[in-house]
């Protein structure tokens, strides 16, 4: 192998490692999971909805950031998708949670209870403008969490907002496994001495 080819190989490995550490710029996110109307939002779809502007301060590591963000309330986006609820379980909506995912796989969770206007009313925004500009390296949309001191849940390069439930519903499969074991148990009982 010539030294130029070796250099080329080294350069491509280096680039692969660097780009892997960086988040790809997001251009759309999905609203998925326990909702009646799953959706996909891009910049235009977000900008078409009623907007809210908030000035917030958060810690990015040790750096304090104060910025004015414009975006759509996360509760509005969830309302439009309609979060499914089970009326047969008391306050079932309060067992639900939202996972925000970035293009780099970074995730942060919010309980529906902290987001809903009748409960925590956290005022979380899906922001698409910062100080009069687009978000640059943070992709077309990121979360803004006014009540948080640290910026950890300001998920950037948003690619998905997923609704899930903390209530574990036993699968019918579990019952089948149990049922299929029963004849064997009866057989053992019948043939066990004493
Ligand atoms: N997609 C994604 N979002 C992210 C992170 C990340 O690694 N990936 N880091 C979080 C952390 S720990 C902080 S402190 C803030 C940093 O905010 P900044 O992008 O304004 O510096 O982004 C948050 N959002
Ligand atoms: Mo952070």
Task: Briefly characterize the structure.
This protein has 194 residues and is α+β, with helices and mostly antiparallel strands. Helix content is 29%, strand content 30%. β1 (28-33) and β2 (39-42) form a beta hairpin.
Describe the fold and architecture:
With 194 residues, this protein is α+β, with helices and mostly antiparallel strands. The chain has a single domain (24-165), classed as Sulfite Oxidase, Chain A, domain 2 (Alpha-Beta Complex), CATH 3.90.420.10. The chain has helices at 3-21, 43-47, 74-81, 112-115, 172-191, and strands at 28-33, 39-42, 52-60, 63-73, 96-102, 107-111, 125-130, 142-144, 158-165. The protein has a five-stranded mixed beta sheet. β3 and β4 form a beta hairpin. The site of molybdenum atom has 4 residues, from loops. Molybdenum atom is lined by residues 60-61, 151-152.
Structural class, judged by helices and strands? alpha+beta
Number of DSSP strands?
9
Ligand list: the ligand Nc1nc2c(c(=O)[nH]1)N[C@H]1C(S)=C(S)[C@@H](COP(=O)(O)O)O[C@H]1N2, molybdenum atom
User: What do we call the CATH homologous superfamily?
Assistant: Oxidoreductase, molybdopterin-binding domain
> Helix content range of the residues, please?
25-40%
Order of helices and strands: HEEHEEHEEHEEEH
Morphology call? extended
Keywords: Signal
Domain Oxidoreductase molybdopterin-binding: 28-164
Signal peptide: 1-23
InterPro entries: OxRdtase_Mopterin-bd_dom, OxRdtase_Mopterin-bd_sf
């Amino acid at each position: 192998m010539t030294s130029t080819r070796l250099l080329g190989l080294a350069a491509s490995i280096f680039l692969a490692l660097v780009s892997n550490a960086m988040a790809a710029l997001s251009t759309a996110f999905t609203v998925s999971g326990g909702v009646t109307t799953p959706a996909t939002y891009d910049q235009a779809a977000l900008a078409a909805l009623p907007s809210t502007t908030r000035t917030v301060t958060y810690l990015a590591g040790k750096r304090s950031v104060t910025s004015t963000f414009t975006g759509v309330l996360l509760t509005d986006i969830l309302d439009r998708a309609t979060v499914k609820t089970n009326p047969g379980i008391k306050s079932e909506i309060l067992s639900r949670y939202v996972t925000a995912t970035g293009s780099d796989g970074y995730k942060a969770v919010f309980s529906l209870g902290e987001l809903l206007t009748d409960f925590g009313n956290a005022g979380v925004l899906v922001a698409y403008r910062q100080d009069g500009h687009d978000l640059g390296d943070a992709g077309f949309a990121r979360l803004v969490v006014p009540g948080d001191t640290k910026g950890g849940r300001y998920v950037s390069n948003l690619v998905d907002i997923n609704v899930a439930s903390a209530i574990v519903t036993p699968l019918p499969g579990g019952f089948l496994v149990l049922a299929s074991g029963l004849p064997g148990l009866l057989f053992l009982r019948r043939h066990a001495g004493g």
